[in-house]
Design brief:
about 180 residues; mainly beta; five-stranded antiparallel sheet; disordered N terminus
């Protein structure tokens, strides 16, 4: 395994020989060229604005923290529907991302391609430019509508560092519970 240090900060004291070195995050790259995060991002939260089935106009938010010592910038995120009785469809052209959280929106981020693979139930969100370490970002996906069937829907979130050959780090599941708003007598 090859570990490359980008740079370090050294502070020398004028009085003597004492020296403090503050290491900066290092990128991990294997001999075969695969790039890894040094410290992986964390899925902070996954929420939806509405929990009722068949609701039109909701938004699904995925908040990710990319730590300062990640070692690489965040290039893309995949969101895969792992559980749920109905495939959720999205308005991909209405996908947004911003620095901050759902409740504390900051600067809007520029996205590259946002794609969908219906067979694997995967949404891929590319950042252009990549997100630099030390930031919390939120991806906002707009479904065509919430599913027609109530129940639990699990959406797996994976983050990929910059690199032609990058290893995706699974961050966890966003768990959405949708409820029927009908009363059964």
């Amino acid at each position: 395994m090859r570990v490359a240090t980008f740079f370090g900060i050294t502070l020398s004291l004028a009085i003597g020989i004492a020296e403090l070195t503050f290491p900066v995050a290092q990128a991990v790259q294997l001999r075969d060229g695969i790039v890894y995060f040094v410290q992986p991002p964390k899925l902070v939260e996954a929420t939806t604005t509405y929990k009722e089935v068949n609701f039109w106009g909701g938004t699904y938010y995925f908040t990710i923290n990319l730590p300062e010592n990640a070692g690489e910038s965040l290039q893309k995120v995949t969101i895969v529907q792992r559980e749920g009785s109905e495939n959720i469809q999205y308005h991909l052209d209405d996908t947004r991302a911003f620095v901050g959280t759902r409740d504390r929106k900051g600067t809007q981020l520029t996205l590259g391609a946002v794609t969908s693979d219906r067979q694997t139930r995967t949404i891929t969100v590319n950042f252009d430019p990549p997100v630099t370490p030390g930031q919390t970002v939120t991806i906002a996906l707009r479904p065509v509508s919430n599913p027609s069937f109530s129940g639990v829907y699990l959406l797996g979130v994976t983050a990929f560092p910059v690199g032609e050959k990058s290893h995706g780090q699974f961050l966890g599941f966003g768990r959405f519970q949708f409820y029927s708003n009908r009363s059964w007598w």
